[in-house]
C-alpha cells in the first residue's frame, strides 16, 4: 500500500518530469499565450470581491491577475433571481474576455467571473448602501428562509464559456430589535446583498443552511474547482508545490 507521502512525491515527480520535457520545446516556440514562466496556464479573476479571492486561495488556487469587470447590474423588470445572476456573470465574462484580448499577458488565459444575489421568493435583495435599505432587508429575512444564488462563468483559452448556477437555502432566526439595531450600527451590512455576510457578525443569525456554505460567501468552491479541473486547468499545481516545500 502506497503511503500518502509517497503518493504526493510520486505525483510531484510526474509533474516535474512533464514540465522538464516540455521546457525545451516551449523555449524554442516562445512563451505560449496565457501561460506563466512555469508553463502553467494563467488564471484571471474578474472580480473585485476580496471574499472570492480569499476563497480561491483557500482552495490552493492563486489567480495570476485580478481584473474586475464593470457592468450594469440593474435587474430587468420581472427577472427572476436565477436568470439575473446567470446573465450578469456571463456579461462579466464577455466583458473580461474582450479586455483580455487586448492585453498580451492575458490573451489565452482562463477567466473566472461570478455573481451572487439573495432572494426571497422572486424578490431580489440587491447590495445595500443605505441604512433604510439594510433595515428593510433584515426585517424581510428575519425569522424566515431565503435563497442565495451564485452564477459562475469560466472563459476558456478558446473563448468558449462554461457556466453553472448554484443555489443554497438559508434560514435566519427571528431578530430582536436590539440585535437589529446593534447590527445596523456596526455598518457591516454596507455593500452586502441582503445586508449581511454570513462569514461576519450576521453568521450568528443563521439557524440552518441547506447547500454550499462557500456559495453564500460568494463562490461555490466545490463547483468552481470541479469546473476548472474539468476544463484542463491544473488546480493541483500549487498543492504539489506546497508539498515539495514542506518536504524540504
Write the layout of secondary structure elements.
Blueprint: H1 4-29, E1 43-45, H2 50-58, E2 65-66, H3 81-100, E3 110-120, E4 123-125, H4 131-141, E5 145-155, E6 161-172, H5 177-186, E7 206-210, H6 213-217, H7 221-230, H8 237-247
Parallel strand pairs: 1-2, 1-3
Antiparallel strand pairs: 3-4, 3-5, 5-6, 6-7
Helix pairs in contact: 1-8
- In terms of quaternary structure, the protein is single chain
Strand content: 15-25%
Radius of gyration: 21 Å
Largest sheet: 7 strands, mixed
The percentage helix is 40-55%
Named CATH topology of the largest domain: Maf protein
- Helix and strand content put the structural class at alpha/beta
Cα-to-Cα separation, first versus last residue:
24 Å
For the secondary structure, the number of strands is 7
Under the CATH scheme, which architecture of the largest domain would be assigned? Alpha-Beta Complex
| Global shape | elongated
- Which spans of ≥5 residues are poorly predicted at pLDDT below 50? 15-31
Whole-number mean pLDDT: 86
- Number of helical stretches of at least 4 residues: 8
Please characterize this protein's 3D structure.
- By secondary structure, the protein is of the alpha/beta class.
- The chain has two domains: 42 residues, no CATH class; 191 residues, Maf protein, CATH 3.90.950.
- The protein contains eight helices and seven strands; from the N terminus they run αβαβαββαββαβααα.
- The radius of gyration is 21 Å and the shape is elongated.
- 31% of the residues are buried.
- About 7% of the residues have low confidence.
Amino acid at each position: 500500500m502506497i503511503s500518502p507521502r509517497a503518493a504526493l512525491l510520486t505525483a510531484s515527480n510526474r509533474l516535474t518530469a512533464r514540465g522538464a520535457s516540455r521546457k525545451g520545446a516551449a523555449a524554442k516556440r516562445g512563451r505560449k499565450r496565457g501561460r506563466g514562466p512555469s508553463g502553467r496556464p494563467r488564471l484571471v479573476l474578474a472580480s473585485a470581491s476580496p471574499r472570492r479571492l480569499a476563497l480561491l486561495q483557500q482552495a490552493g488556487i492563486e489567480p495570476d491577475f485580478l481584473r474586475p469587470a464593470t457592468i450594469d447590474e440593474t435587474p430587468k423588470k420581472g427577472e427572476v433571481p436565477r436568470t439575473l445572476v446567470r446573465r450578469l456573470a456571463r456579461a462579466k465574462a464577455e466583458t473580461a474576455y474582450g479586455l483580455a484580448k487586448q492585453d498580451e499577458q492575458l490573451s489565452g488565459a482562463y477567466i473566472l467571473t461570478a455573481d451572487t444575489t439573495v432572494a426571497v421568493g422572486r424578490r431580489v435583495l440587491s447590495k445595500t448602501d443605505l441604512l433604510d435599505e439594510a433595515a428593510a432587508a433584515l426585517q424581510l429575512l428575519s425569522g424566515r428562509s431565503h435563497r442565495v444564488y451564485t452564477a459562475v462563468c469560466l472563459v476558456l483559452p478558446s473563448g468558449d464559456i462554461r457556466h453553472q448556477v448554484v443555489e443554497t437555502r438559508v434560514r435566519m432566526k427571528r431578530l430582536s430589535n436590539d440585535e437589529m439595531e446593534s447590527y445596523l450600527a456596526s455598518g457591516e451590512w454596507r455593500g452586502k446583498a441582503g445586508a449581511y455576510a454570513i462569514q461576519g457578525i450576521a453568521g450568528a443569525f443563521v439557524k440552518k443552511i441547506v447547500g454550499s456554505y462557500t456559495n453564500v460567501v460568494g463562490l461555490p468552491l466545490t463547483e468552481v474547482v470541479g469546473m476548472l479541473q474539468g476544463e484542463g486547468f491544473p488546480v493541483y499545481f500549487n498543492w504539489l508545490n506546497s508539498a515539495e516545500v514542506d518536504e524540504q
